[in-house]
Amino acid sequence: MGFQFRLCLFLLCFGPAWLGAVEVVEGPRVEVAGTSATVSWKTDVPAGATVRFGLNESLLNRRAEAEAVSTLHQVRLDGLKPGARYFYSVGTARRPLREGSFLAVPGAAAGAARAPRAAAAPPAAARPAAGEAKPAGPAAAPPARQTWGAVATLRDHYERHGRDFAATSSEDYAAQAWHFLQRAKAEGLPAKLDPDGTLRVWDHKTRAFAAYNRNGLAKTYFKPDSPGYFDRQPGRPVRLKPDATPDGR
């Protein structure tokens, strides 16, 4: 009986990773706060969570783990060197699944950085498709420091998601996120609002998703792998345009 119990425990904790069946379906995302950071991601099956990280991309010599076996993972990294760029991988104890990097900047927790409200800028038209002429004059987006909530996280978001929108730089990526919100308001795209003021917006045609804080500053902007990603997000549905239908169509 003791052997069977240990075998069941092993399969529960390490079975998916051992079989090579674990896949990352969302994330990873990094929130930096002082000399610590929290890495979060989601897997398709329950598994253990391990983050390997370090200052050298080819030598991830530090490691942090979560105690619980789950599909939703959050691992805290402590003792970071302020201002340094860290490279990391997320996965199970046996197998890294995805890699990334982030900048360890004190006070860079999501929402910690404050800037003027993006709504104070002149109204803008919809962001043009990749390859089209970029807006100019009054339609141009304000600088990223005025549209991105936690500026210290912008580079990491751009490196992970900029290719989704053919962004040429972190500044261009932030501008596209700002334009997406303006278009969402003009067209009445599907949106959800959290009690903490987080606004999540979805475009079913382009599969673009973005989240903004209560000041209208961008928190993230990307194209989820899962078609039902927006439906699973928390918050109550809201209409950004009074005459729009609930699904924005």
Describe the structure.
With 249 residues, the protein is α+β, with helices and mostly antiparallel strands. It has two domains: 102 residues, Sandwich (Immunoglobulin-like); 121 residues, Nuclear Transport Factor 2, Chain: A (Roll), CATH 3.10.450. Helix content is 19%, strand content 33%. The chain contains four helices and ten strands. The strands form two sheets. Strands 1, 2, 3, 4 and 5 form a five-stranded antiparallel β-sheet that branches. It has a five-stranded antiparallel β-sheet with strand order 9-8-7-6-10. The longest helix has 18 residues. The chain is globular. The termini are far apart. About 16% of the residues have low confidence.
How many strands in all? 10
Strand content is 25-35%
Count the domains.
2
Average of pLDDT: 80
Report the C-alpha radius of gyration, rounded: 20 Å
Ends distance: 58 Å
User: Ranges with pLDDT <50 over ≥5 residues?
Assistant: 14-20, 107-138
Secondary-structure element sequence?
A: HEEEEEHHHEEEEE
Provide the structure class: alpha+beta
**Which CATH architecture of the largest domain is right?**
Roll
